[in-house]
Amino acid sequence: MGRKLLTEHINVPGIDTFEVYRQHGGYRSVEKALKTMTPDEVVEEVKKSGLRGRGGAGFPTGMKWSFLAKPEGVPRHLVCNADESEPGTFKDRHLMSKLPHLLIEGMITSSYALGANTSYIYIRGELLYVLRILEKAIAEAYANGFLGKNILGSGYDLDLHVHPGGGAYICGEETALLESLEGKRGNPRNKPPFPAVQGLYARPTVVNNVESIAAVVPIINEGGEEYAKLGVGKSTGTKLISACGHLNKPGIYEIELGVPVEEFIYSDEYCGGIWKGRDLKAVVAGGSSVPILPKELILKTAAGESRLMTYESLSDGGFVTGTMLGSGGFIAMDETTCIVRNTWNFSRFYHHESCGQCSPCREGTGWLEKVLHRLEHGHGNMHDIDLIVSVAKQIEGNTICPLGEAAAWPVAAAVRHFRHEFEWHVTNRQEATRPGAVYPGKAVLV
Amino acid sequence: MAKITFDGIEIEVPDGTTIMNAARKIGGDIVPPAMCYYTPLKGTGGKCRACLVKVTAGSAKDPRPMPKLVPSCITTVQDGMVVENTTNQQVLDVRKGIVEMLLINHPLDCPVCDQAGECDLQNFAFEHGVATTRYEEERRTFEKIDIGPYIQLHMTRCILCYRCVYTADQLTEQRVHGVLGRGDAAEIGTYIDNIIDQDFSGNVIDVCPVGALTDKTWRFKQRVWFTKPVNAHRNCENPKCSGNVVLWYKGKDVLRVTARKDEYGEVKEWICNTCRFEKKETSDWTIEGPTHIERSSVISANHYELPVVNPQVIADMPESTIRDLEQNPPLKLGR
User: Fold this and answer.
1) Yes or no: is domain B2-101 CATH 3.10.20.740?
2) ipTM of this predicted complex?
C-alpha cells in the first residue's frame, strides 16, 4: 500500500466539519507556517518538495511561485483553479466535497507564502453542492480564527472567496479563468504578460489547481525533503488518479508516483483489471486531451521497459509512442471500444467548448468533429483520414491557449495508432455502422 | 532601442515596438498580414493568427528560438531578435492553413459583396491561400440582422476579429453589441432588440476587415473601383470628430463618406456619424484633392488621380494632408 498524504482521513465520518478535521491533525500546516516560518521559507519547502502542478501541465509549483512579481504596495492574489471539467478527470470534485478544509488549509498556507491577502477559489458552476460545502467550511474557518484578520495572532490577514463559474471548459484555462473571475467573457488572454506579472485585476497572481494547493499541506507538515522522497525522479509525492472506463474498480486513487501502469490497471489495490474479463485495447492516461495509447504502448515503452505512472515515463517517446500524465484522468478502453467513435466523441466535446476567439481553434475543432462524424457514420473517404491529421496539425501550436492542442492531440494520436480502424470504417461501411460494431483486428504499433 | 533582423533585413526600433510594427517600418511585401490587429484600437491582435511568424533567435542575451510561432502583432521585439516571415516555409504553410480556416464559413460572394476591392480577407486569400478548399461540410449561415438605421450586419461574412467590439468599446458612449455564443457558433450580436446608432458607431464599418458590417447608405450603389476617392474636411461641431474624411464620388454624387486610412487600411482619425452618414453634398465639404491609394487594391487601377491638384490653392488644408501630398504627389499625366 502506498502512502496517502491527501486522502488518509477521507472516509472518517464528519471529516468535512472543522471539528473532526482538526481532531485529525487539520490546520497544523497553518500553525507551523504562520508561527515558525517566513513566507520565503514556505516557498522554499515547496521548491524542495519537487511538487509539480497537478492540473495537467506539470510545471514545478515552487518555481511558479517564485516567478510572482512582488512590487511594494501592490496586492497579490492566489486563485485556486477548481474548474475541473475535462472528460475523465474528476478528482478535484471528490477532494473538495470530502475534504473541504484540506483545500482551505492549503489556501491559507499558500496565500501566506505568496503574500496574498485576498484569495479565490474559482469553482465550476455545475458543482453547486461542492460550492455549498466549501462555503460552509470557509464560514467555519472564519469562526475559528483561521481566516479573516490577524490569523492566529500572527498579524497575517486573509479573505477567501469562492466563486462559481459559468460552466465553460475554457474557464479552466488560467487566463480565461481570470477573465471570468473579473466578470468578463471567459476568453483566454494572450501571453505574455503571464499572470505572475499581470493576473487578476492586472495584479501579480498565482493560479494553482486544487490538488496542488492541497498538497502544500503535507509538504509543510512533513517537510519538502520528506515529500520528495516519495515518487520517482522528478515526479515526486503522491497523485490523485481518477480512473474510469472499462475497469473492474473505477474510482479515485491516491498513488505514489512511480506505480507501474500495469500494476495500476490490474492489481486489486487499484483498478482490479478490465471488466467482464475482456482484454485492454487502449488507454488515455491523463484526461481526454492527451494522446491515446494502445495497450502495448501504455504497458511498456517502445524500448520494452515497463511504463510507470510518472510524468517522465508516460511521456517517454514524445508524441509518437508516448502520452502525458496530465491531470490524472485515466480512461481505460476494452477490446469492444470503437476508437473512431471515441475520437469523434472527444472531438464533439472540444468543438462545443472552443471559445471561438482565435480562428484555427474556432473553425478547426468544428471541422474535425464533422469529418469524424462522417467517418463514424459510414460516409467517410480514405482521404478524410489524412485530412483530419492535416487539420489537427493546422490547429496545434497555432492557437492562443492550449485548447487547440487538446483538440488536436487525441485525433492525431488516434489516427497514428489506429489508422487501420479508421480505414476499416471506410471500406466496411455497412459493418462499421452497425450498432456495437468494433474493428475485428489488433492495433498496429507504429 | 532594439536591433532586430526581420527576413534578413536589419532594423533598429524603439523598445516595446511589436514585431509587426517593426516590419511595417521596413514596409513592402514582407509585412505580415493582419486581420484582427488594428493599431488605433487598444487590445486588438493575437486572435486571427494570420500574422504568426517564426522567431529563430529570441534575443542577443537568449538566442534560443521560440518553440512556437508567435503572433507578430502583439509580440514585442528584443534586442538581437531574429524573425522569419516570408523566408520561413513553416510560416507560409501555417498561413495557408489560416486562410483555409477563415474561408470555411466566409462566403465567396465577392461579386456581390460591398467590401470587394477593399477586403482584407480577399487580399489575404489571394496572397496566401490556395485555389481550392478541402471543406465539404455544410457552411454556417445567418439571417441578415437589422441593427440600426445606418449599419447592416451580415454575420455570415464575419470572421470574428473583434475589431468592431473594441471600436464600440473605445469610441462610443454606450456599447450595445458584442460576441454571443462560443466556438464556431459565436456571433456578433446586440443585446435584445438593441440597435447600433451611437455617435461614432459608424467607425465599426471602417474597421471591419470583411463585408460583415456595411454602410446602409452606400450598399449596392456602386463597386468601389468605379468611384473616385477625394480627401475633404469640414469643421465638425463634434469636438471628438476630426472632420477629415474621404468622399467617394461617382460623377458629381458623393456616394459614401469614410475616414481616412493609411496604407495598412487603418483609420488615421475617427469621424462621427454626422460626417459619415448625413453630409453627402459637396457643398458640405472643403475639397482637398484625390486620395492617394497605395495598397494593392483594384481601386488604384483606375488612375483616378490623373487631374493634378495644386495643394497651394486650397485654403485651410491640414498640415497632415499637405505632408501626405508632398510624400505622395498626385500622378503626373502620361504615366
Assistant:
1) yes
2) 0.90
